[in-house]
Design a protein that fits this description.
Blueprint: H1 2-19, E1 36-40, E2 45-54, H2 57-75, E3 79-80, H3 95-98, H4 100-106, E4 117-118, H5 122-128, E5 130-131, E6 139-148, H6 149-158
Parallel strand pairs: 1-3
Antiparallel strand pairs: 1-2, 2-6, 4-6, 5-6
Length: 163
């Protein structure tokens, strides 16, 4: 009888402990989506899918283009199909910090990064553009971007960022 009482007490404590857990709700709008590979052609162009946020579509598209180039330079593309080069162009993890002014100017609006983040044909982009839920007055957009890998690598070599 005592063992039965101990068993019930143990079960009661376990159930009580489970009910005390925090019930945090997650919202997909707060998820940080990674840049994914869509395709790669033999001419050094990689087509990637990136997310950008902004107050309007124009700002979100610009931020998605920035993010695509940033991921290609510093992270590499790991998601999506296996056609893209997964290694980052810049392998030194301290380069972003050491060359902060260079990359500030590179990623500024109208900066050099825009030369390497092209948009596919207009009709294809409209099919691929998806609006996510509003998130603190920002809209999240998914957009398809063509990254000129050869041109980007050449630019980094000319500016002595990579060897």
């Amino acid at each position: 009888m005592k063992s039965l009482i101990k068993l019930f007490a143990l079960i009661f404590m376990i159930v009580s402990a489970q009910s005390c857990k925090s019930k945090i709700q997650t919202v997909s709008g707060f998820f940080d989506y990674e840049t994914e590979c869509v395709s790669s052609d033999g001419n050094g162009i990689q087509t990637v899918k990136a997310w950008g946020t902004g107050n309007d579509e124009k700002e979100a598209v610009l931020n998605a283009r920035r993010r695509a180039i940033d991921d290609v330079l510093f992270k590499g593309i790991r998601g999506g199909t296996s056609f893209c080069d997964v290694r980052p162009i810049i392998s030194n993890p301290n380069t972003r910090r050491d060359m902060e002014q260079y990359f500030y100017e590179f990623f500024a609006q109208g900066g050099a990064f825009e030369n390497y983040a092209g948009l596919p044909e207009e009709n294809w982009i409209r099919q691929k553009l998806k609006i996510n839920k509003k998130n603190k007055d920002n809209l999240a957009f998914e957009i398809v971007i063509e990254v000129d890998m050869m041109g980007l690598k050449d630019q980094m070599r000319r500016d002595n960022i990579i060897q």
